[in-house]
Amino acid sequence: MPSPLWILLSIGVLAIAIALLYQRAGTRRDARTIPPPGELVDIGDGRRLHLHRAGGDGPSVIFDAGIAASSLSWSRVQPLAAAFARTYSYDRAGLAWSDAGRGPVSAGSLARDLHALLTAAKVPPPYVLVGHSFGTFVIRMFAAEFPAEVSGLVLVDPIYASEFLTMPSPGRRRIAGGVFLSHVGSGLARVGVVRACLDLLARGSTRVPRGISRAFGSEASSTLDRLVGEVRKLPPEVWPAVRAHWSQSKGFAAMARHLRSLERSAAEIARSERPLEIPLVVITAGSQPEAARLEHARMAALSSAGRQVISRHAGHWVHLDEPDVVVAAIRDVVDHCRRRGVTESSASR
């Protein structure tokens, strides 16, 4: 008669096998039913990044999302901006439809990835770069490394270097905890646990997902609640794609790399900061404390054509809370470039 230990091991192996099959079947179904809205572009080293184009006329407006967000986070802004510009959102390596990343990253390396993508996809400069949160680090490094190709910047509730270079111990512990939880999420996604939880949430059942998140502490649970709240601000038609992407382990691995990069990226930003002569709009969420508002005002003052806009009724994800504020800022920068005669043809001469 089999021993109890042998029975338990057999049940465990069977459960893991079923979970892996469930995850594999779901991944295949997602690939078939949720194709990328854009194209997968080889950036020259065997990696493909997803680029989504919209609009046919005007200057090139490039969108860069927050730390673990994707091109989908611009779903409320890109269609509106496409009415007066050629717009391009993309997914950094490991996120959404893009291939998994390789090794450590920083704002500088991600800016070079973006440059390789735009070059490979033949997106004409000069670019109006629009970034949210961590994405502002990437576009600021892009502007520092490729200044001749940038005609304007829109920073949507940007993070800033000093908050990571002078970070007290609790902040460092939070980031380390975020890295750890990202790795845990990656492992759980591999065996279908994340997919099952997200499927339950989509059906309105919260007990099991909340129970699992609480097992990792109150901060993990509150973070999950906050992210679910932000996702629900997206157009409902993109919710299945968001759910599919976060059912894969690569997104969690990418989040861990991004979190680990924060201090290194902040140091790059601090070293590269210099006065600008291009139009710059810094949008500050109304929920930000006075210290952040002052730092955002300092950023805007880096440009002789810079200004700060307070989005009074928005939280950190301004482009979801008040998309019209972001679209108006983009239009303002685009119009400023046109008045200055900055066009695709003039940039190529």
Give an account of the 3D structure.
Helix content is 53%, strand content 15%. With 349 residues, it is an alpha/beta fold. The protein has one domain (13-349): Rossmann fold. An eight-stranded mixed β-sheet has the order 1-2-4-3-5-6-7-8, with helices on both faces. Helix 3 (107-120) crosses helix 4 (134-145) and helix 4 (134-145) packs across helix 12 (262-272). It is globular.
Per-chain topology:
Elements lengths: L3 H30 L5 E4 L5 E7 L5 E5 L13 H4 L4 E5 L16 H14 L6 E6 L1 H12 L4 E7 L5 H4 L3 H22 L2 H10 L4 H8 L3 H14 L7 H7 L3 H12 L1 H11 L3 E10 L4 H11 L2 E9 L6 H4 L1 H17 L4 H5 L1
Parallel strand pairs: 3-4, 3-5, 5-6, 6-7, 7-8
Antiparallel strand pairs: 1-2, 2-4
Helix pairs in contact: 3-4, 4-12, 6-11
Features:
single chain, 349 residues, alpha/beta, globular
Count of domain modules = 1
The CATH class assignment is Alpha Beta
How many β-strands, per DSSP? Answer: 8
Percentage beta strand: 15-25%
What is the molecular shape? globular
**Helix and strand run:** HEEEHEHEHEHHHHHHHHEHEHHH
CATH architecture: 3-Layer(aba) Sandwich
Helix content: 40-55%
- Give the end-to-end Cα distance, rounded to a whole number of Å: 83 Å
